[in-house]
Batch of 3 targets.
Target 1
Amino acid sequence: MNSMLERLSKEFRVTDITERHPGLTTLTADKDVAETLLRELRDREGYTHLNFMTAIDYIERGVFTLVYMLHNYATKSTLSVHVNIDRVNAEMTSIHTLWAQAWTYQRELRELWGINFPGSPRVEEDFCLEGWEEIPPMRREFDTVEYCERTFTSREGRGTVNPREHMAEIIFPNRGGDK
Amino acid sequence: MSLKDLISPFFVWQRAFEKPYTVGLKPIVERPGAPAYRGFHINMSDDCVGCGSCFTICQNHAIDMVKVDGLEAHGGDSGLRPRFDYGRCCWCGLCVDICTAGSLRMTNEYAWFTTNPDDFRFVAGMENKSWDGRTGGYHRHPDYHLFPPKRIEMEMLAPEESVASFTEVAKGYTEEQAKLEADRCVECGICVATCPAHMDVPDYIHSIRDGDYEKGLQLMYRTNPFPATCGRICTRRCESVCPVGIQGEPVAIRWLKRFIVDQVAEADYARILPNVEADTGKRIAIVGAGPGGLSAAYYLRLKGHAVEVFESQAQAGGMLRYGVPSYRLPDPALDKDIEHIRSLGVEIHFNHSIGRDTAFSDLLDNYDAVFVSTGLNVPSQMRIQGEDHPRVMDGLKLLDDVANGKDPQIGTSVAVIGGGNVAMDAARVSRRLGAEVTVLYRRRIEDMPADTEEIHEAQAEGCIFVTQAIPVEALNAAQSDQVTLKWGEAEMLQDPKGGRPRPVLQEERMHLDTFDTVVSAIGQGSNLDYIPTEISDQLQIKWGKFIPGDYQQMVLNKLFVGGDVANATADAISAIEDGHHAARGIHRFLDTGQRG
Ligand SMILES: Cc1cc2nc3c(=O)[nH]c(=O)nc-3n(C[C@H](O)[C@H](O)[C@H](O)COP(=O)(O)OP(=O)(O)OC[C@H]3O[C@@H](n4cnc5c(N)ncnc54)[C@H](O)[C@@H]3O)c2cc1C
Ligand code: SF4
Ligand code: SF4
């Protein structure tokens, strides 16, 4: 495992290699080598299975981190390959040629995060959000609460009390800063 | 229609007579949810503090914070509890992940039948449910946190370095550190009720996230004109109730306050902070230029009243100047606060004692209102024999000398008697003056009224703590410039009524130790001699402290009091709030003639 990681870090400029717990290691790879790296892991290192793909929105840093979770059945080890891509015009090479099921994940990633995978089969089609007209909902700038308030009604009898204001009223009614 | 379509219903009918797979014989065996299933919520209502973080994070607005019978708002708990609306919940579990108290989780129960849809709106933990007491279901993993449980550590001078000078020990946060620490705040506002001045804590912390320090300063001055000071030495009651502190360390509110003030230059204060309103023609006298007096002065002056402060000392600040040592509160920080108050036109008469230079009754006669905040400046007696020995000194005198640049001549071995902040300051100052220091305290370390941080720093700086030690007598030592302290060991006796354990002197376990100086720092009381008896007889005063009514007003309508001489907490922030509240009362009284 270690010699493999050493080799990868040299040959593929892989960084941030961290063992999260025995059997799960994460690492970060550059966007332009990611596809070759994944192929290498599948064909030469025994990571034959793609468990899943997902993304994390690091809006503060202006990137999406794509996560490719791979499994090696022989060594029972899981490798999580992270690839940072630009949030603006977010786009990534499709890997449906490496693992056929990837096209489903990529279709989901396109719908929920707005990340495009040119050439991925049916990637443009609706996945689970039929007729969605908002920005992709897993993007952090999507205001879920606002959307819910606008879209769904509340049952009668709802109503909330603000803890801080409630305490001010009960505990220090005429103190604190001028209103 | 094909033949198959035509006859297939008969095949299905045939099945009706077989033994079913799914519905067994009664009673129906329920299948429990998976161990970490996100099912119905459960809230340990006694542990929940009503912070509302679950409400805030819920992306579906499935939660309301509601009043419930039998729960009252009190320090550290809003008394509100989350009510769930299962018509909107999507079972994401975010509310469980954020729960500051760790009181909320989800059980693995997922079946609930009722004919009334309103039943699905319920206050978890306050209504009996069939899944109460279940242990399975979704818990936040102990290592998974939506906010880091540890605060950003404040960089301090190393103890070897700190004892060598009076340089400020805490270095202050960098901008990066302050932003990270500010990010730990869930902005629930539970602390606001506990802060004696009710500062807008979540709002000024938010200003750090936004990098808008001028806004932060404005927010602080709404309730506290001593932010540079309090950002360093506040007793920070707020931190003791911060819900983030329940499962981790509380947000470093005091250091964040300091950070904001340190970012804004004093020269910019006039532009940023509110200015004085139009002149009202009213005149107010204030006795004492400590934080209580000056806080009142600030808020009264803002309202356009003319304010004169009478101060017996040569400088303003009261105990913050003459008590708190400069390694905790450097003069420039205190001056920054005081200078802004003075810049608004608050006049201070220095070296002017009421009772000596001006009669107290003259103030009542010549001003529209009087605010008194004269503090506690008489050291309490140890009530032991030999207390008047020339090598026994009181802690206030020691600190006062040092603040005034005088050498208190303590020698190289010092015993400090007491366990409060004054004792810690006296001990650490003595270390800085080059002495070996032993602190003697009658109870245990955990009983010490001093701030734990102060105790740790004193220990790190090499002060030796001897606990359960009761001084009995100060005797002449072999050398005339020393003193021998006779002290006895104490056993802690449990109070059968459940009060705090009491130290009992063990007569047979006495010790004699010789020191260059014994510093007594066991508390202080007031000196109200400046008030003539014909006036004080009319006032409510108990154990040397005023007992004010609403808005800090006394029975003499014109007289308002506050600070250490009128409250039980005796810290800077309480004095500041008393001053602010009295200012509000005085303004109201002058405006409408109304009493509190
Ligand atoms: C050593 C020490 C350490 C402390 N550490 C802390 C700390 O870390 N955090 C904290 O929050 N608090 C601390 N305190 C407490 C804090 O300093 C006081 O609570 C606060 O200063 C009280 O303010 P005040 O306005 O009531 O009185 P003071 O600050 O005592 O001010 C009263 C002023 O009135 C003047 N005065 C008195 N009589 C007259 C008169 N007849 N005529 C004119 N002027 C008069 C005095 O000279 C003084 O300047 C400490 C106190 C001491 C002594
Ligand atoms: S589980 Fe999710 S949707 Fe349901 S109340 Fe909690 S935060 Fe809201
Ligand atoms: S987050 Fe936890 S402690 Fe705060 S109100 Fe909700 S259940 Fe109570």
Target 2
Amino acid sequence: MHAEKEIHFRDAAAKALLDPQLRANFRRAMDGLIAKRLAQFPDPRDLQDLRDLSTAIRSRSLLCLPELLEQLEASCAKNGIKVHWAETCEQANQLILGILQAKGAKTLVKGKSMVSEEMHLNAFLESKGIEALESDLGEYIIQLDGETPSHIIMPAIHKNKDQIARQFSQKIKDAKYTEDVDELTAMARKVLRQKFLDADAGLSGVNFAVAETGTLCLVENEGNGRMSTHVPPLHIAVMGLEKVVARLEDVAPLYAILTRSATGQAVSTYFNLITGPRGEGEKDGPQEVHLVILDNGRSRIYADPQLRATLRCIRCGACMNHCPVYTRVGGHAYEAVYPGPIGKILTPQMEGVGVRHDLIHGSSLCGACGEVCPVEIPIPEILVRLRREATHEDMGSTVVGKGTGRTASEDWAWRLWAGVLKRPALYRVATWFATRFGKALPASAPLIRNWTQSRTKPVPARRSLSERMRAEGVSHE
Amino acid sequence: MSSPNPSAPDSRTAILGRLRAAGDSGPLPALDTAVLERRQWDPAERVTRLRKGMEAVHTEFLDAKSDTWPAVIRVFCEREGLKNLLYGPTSEAGSALAAAWAPEGPQLKPYDRPVEAFKQELFGDIDAGFTGTVGGVAETGGLLLMPGPAEPRLMSLVPPVHIALLRASTIQDSFWSAVKALGWGRALPPNALMISGPSKTADIEQTLAYGVHGPKRLIVVLVDDLK
Ligand code: SF4
């Protein structure tokens, strides 16, 4: 299965780099986030211990994943939460549509959920005549413009307040133009409060699902998550199948490292634990709670012992905040639901390493992502592995699209390289020419051009190392 | 429509089958919780830490004693010109408040009906909500709440001001130790939560704005019941 649709991160990134406004918006935001995260970890020992513990918890959860998912399902059932399973996004969308239609729901308010972005749920529901409204302020802002999130935690980070002020004054009824952040926030509050009040159903993601107690944990600052899950009569939660952990005790360190890594907060405003629909005697809360567990390629990632680490991710976004590529080009250049380093390893594994080989190569492998990741996902190593997978069909893996990322020119270049290296005489002639005439080669020569576009052309040494060694009498053996 | 979920059993089997086929890969790594156990303070320090953590995110504190807190709340309501205060008439804190409340001035409103009969009023006419707490968290600052029949979930969410009663002696070291102390790891009510401040967002240019969806102000009435 070869790429039907080639997407070029390089082109999109080049375009983004020419947008000074975008670059300024990201630079400011990312610098702030980096500093705030650092301030939350004053003691390197505490940080390392917390990372080790969090990594161990996530690894344990993955080791027992099928058992934990079954336990979660049983605990939820006991609590009155109905669990559904979806292998694909299409199935998940249909399931949600079915649940909504069974209740005659026409409007849905949404708390933030990246999995629902993965499913393109909003567009799907709109096509079926159901209004799906984002209520997280950032998500609301981008939905008004028909955009996608540019960051998994701060979806509207690419916009500045002038842009939002203009947008609100055009798109919100009776809104006046203001650049005051408090006033802008108040406008959104007013619109959305009415929506919460009227909505037939609410949807949310899940940060952690606890198998033992059947609890869905939601982390948020705004309160829209609580509004979406407690005000409407029906609550649907969606989660990737990797989100489960064994015990509520395990959630404590994960939560502690999540908020600190994500936004540099020791604690979020709300940490909401949902263990069931409206209980006996309760006066509010939804009458029905459903949990949709989505696979969408995760079980395939799970099958590979090295790539499985991808599923430890707790979606904190720290890897993107610290990525020298992401901070310069922003989230949209990736043309993927999950941007930044985690997106670079996740998207190709979901969509195919061939179609998305642009992403696996769009990294300098500087290692910053792996260093800040709270669950120690070796993102650079996984990138290197996926680069190999993209050009090799024969690695015995389950990676989608393996071997489909080869290009003719690359193949040709490697073959030439191997041919020369295998023949010492030819190699000597080639290096002799390269050292004597390499300097004269114009920077605009084909192939070399790719490198010299944004760098100076390297000047080859006048004599190769082996020539010098021979001249200085160093033995080869 | 009999079941909204026709393909579910197959998907479930297929997903679990694939996960099982991936096989078990090695022993479970040990969990070293020393970093969590290091987080310990004496009761007075816990109060200071909680307060510092929560004040940093705009929570306001009112100091009170075991017998003065209803009066402290009343003074606050009058000073702020709140015309009413939503409370749970059957909760411990709610009934104590009602018993001490004088009929004139700010009105106590009971949350005693299903929300369906109360939604418009709740969203439109309530100035503040009053709830108890089941504890606090010293490490980061935070209140622990267990909404339920006596104190419905929306009391701490919908009114623009949330007033919460916290007894200093119930403050735990960390969320982790609170989970253990409260037995939350074994059984949880349909809803439980931690709240550290008023609702906030930084979605516009990383600029903090308070009161985006939930309460604009969080007032903690801190009862000093330490010996
Ligand atoms: S890969 Fe690590 S740093 Fe990146 S979002 Fe996931 S948990 Fe956070």
Target 3
Amino acid sequence: MSVEIKMATLEPVRHTFTQIAKRFGDKPASRYQEATYDIQAVTNFHYKPSWDPQHNLNDASRTAIQMADWYVLKDPRQFYYATYVASRARMQDNAENNYSFFEKRQLAERLSDEVKNKLIRLLVPLRHVEHTANLNNIYGVSVGFGTALTQALVYEGMDRLGIAQYLSRIGLILDGNTGTALEQAKQAWMEDSTWQRMRALCEELLVQKDWFEVLIAQDLVMDTLTADLYYRQFDCWLADQQAHDVTMLLEFMQEWQKDRDRWLDSTLKLVASESDSNRQQLLQWANHWSGKVAEALAPIAMELIDGDALSRSMDALATRLNKLGIK
Amino acid sequence: MAAKKLNMKDKYKMLTRDLDWEFSYQDRKEAFPYEEYEGIKITDWSKWEDPFRLTMDAYWKYQAEKEKKLYAIFDAFAQNNGHLNISDPRYVNALKVFLGGVTPVEYQAYQGFAHVGRQFGGVGARVACQMQSIDELRHVQTQIHAMSHYNKFFDGLHNWNGMQDKVWYMSVPTSFFHDARSSGPFEFLLAISFSFEYVLTNLLFVPFMSGAAYNGDMATVTFGFSSQSDEARHMTLGLEVIKFLLEQHEDNVPIVQKWVDKWFWRGTRVLGIVSMMMDYMLPNKVMSWREAWEIYFEQAGGALFKDLARYGIKPPKYVDIATAQMDHMSHQTWWNFYNFGEAAGFHTWIPSDKELDWLSEKYPQTFDKYYRPRWELAKKMEAEGKRFYSKGLPQLCNTCQVAMINTEVDDPTMLVYRSTEYKGEKYHFCSDGCHDIFVDEPEKFVQSWLPVHQILQGNCGGADLETVMREYYGMDVGVDNLDMKGSPDELRWKEWKSA
Ligand SMILES: [Fe+2]
Ligand SMILES: [Fe+2]
Ligand SMILES: [Zn+2]
């Protein structure tokens, strides 16, 4: 009986934090909400950054994109740290099974030399592109604005490091852990004419200043085209070569792409619909970078699939831009 | 053919370190532009020894397991009204200080490590910093979630994020991290990874988390210990940073020494608030602040600096003064908040007789002589119904932003009062350490946003303190502040306990 009385008297004084209540009313809030909204400081920055004295430490004006409220960019996956790592732990568990299965059955030995060669020369070097993507997303974390967006970027940044490491593991599986495949792949990246435009583009992305432009160039344009090329078209090509086993090694990337796109599409739609000037800015960046990425990918697509592969991927990009309202 | 077995180091090198490449099409300095302006010389990034070699798959797996356990405890804590198990409702005020003071700086660590995690030219250092960045976001979020239940039942936690960049005493930790983040990448890393994580974090996490355990706070204990394995990684990063810088070039030694001196001093000033949590705000005591300092700084730090001596690094300047002040710090800090308790976002109180005796025992050189008489007087006044509050706000040090309450080592009845003139303006400091830091970087520290000055200049939405507190700080005036005695927190607690 006394227990019941105790519970009855335990009415909460408030249901959530003040800043959350201001947005959503004083009612029980989700963990995503409490861990996300308005937690980044907004005012009274003591000292200008010595590395960027034109801005404050946290400053929304580091990009041409303007939002009345950066927190409208909520993550439809509702990822905060705990739910993010839970999701990736599940995905890596699956990937680990696939990779061990592949290794244990020594499935690499059943691949034709043509397939093996292609994997080493054209797939494994993609890990350097992923490394670039890691840096580009972390850049958005460091100078971007609002926890809603920056936390999604840190998750993606770390994902891209993970993918770069998975691609490296594919190299190690192919060379029996000697590292020769990785060396060959690196040599292709550094010297092969097929890769030089892509490498130049990655280096160019790393010197860009507007973090939202980097996001468009990398996460939208580059990723839409490479994903279509590698994780759809190349995946089919592998199946045609009786090499579906390799597909197992790409499953993580495919699943990841879908998950990531759900967040990215939602974010970019909101940014584009915020204002005409945002929309035009996004369009200008998308056009500018899709020309460059297409040029960089052309020789790779040609060798990887065929002469029409790139234009199929470009169609996929056009459809996506249209869907996002970037037109 | 059987695959070759790879050792950890080779595997990490192949999976991670080889991801970077020599640029051919752009100037690498454009991509990593901040490496040189601090004067630090890096001759060879490949000499970086990875402090831990975690790949992302392993990271996701370990961290997800930790989070699963942690959130199971949070859920149970909320379901069973775990807040009823704490030792005493006064304890929650330490959590208010923690959420207001520590959680926002965890956020700044998340941002700062993302910055260096993008900007360092060496891939090993970058990746280690990125991992710390996302870890720090974890700390922010698990702290919010641990406090979420307390916030439903106690006052003073509800607007922690609205107060971080405004409230007069919050500018101490806030400016500390602003200082580090606005510095170049190497100074940031030395400030946070080395001075803060390696030298000082132990002082916050180990004794305070034990304090939470002694006071029945399962939620805080659990997140504290769950973050310990992250902190262990952060400390090894701190140690690697300093060794790397010192081994790269002899010209780095004096720069590093200057940073060690600066950030040690700034760190000890921030710890004032931790000292008060330990000595005054934990109803069940673990150890005194003085004892924590001996174990976690003097012993652990002493061994560390002995180790660094071979590089020509000396123990931080003014370490003797800091150590002497540890006999005074918590008493002066709590007394200051007791005095300005009208303007604090948490409750203050007079220690119980038993607690006063404990303080006398733990601080035999100083407590009875300098501090106990003050509390006896406060007790007498309170008994007469005259609990007093100092009006207004105290003057703040222009560097560390702590109230000017620090006293001279050779005469603890004398306030330290240092000043300097720069471009026709006078600036005031709590100590020689803070004075020296200003004089070394005046252009930086003339920018200090001093909350008390700002109110006087009318930049905080009003001239009278109560309006500022209500409207600018977002405090619930009359509820969040004032004495513990008679507070809504205390009344509710009594109700719960008598039901
Ligand atoms: Fe932390
Ligand atoms: Fe840390
Ligand atoms: Zn000071």
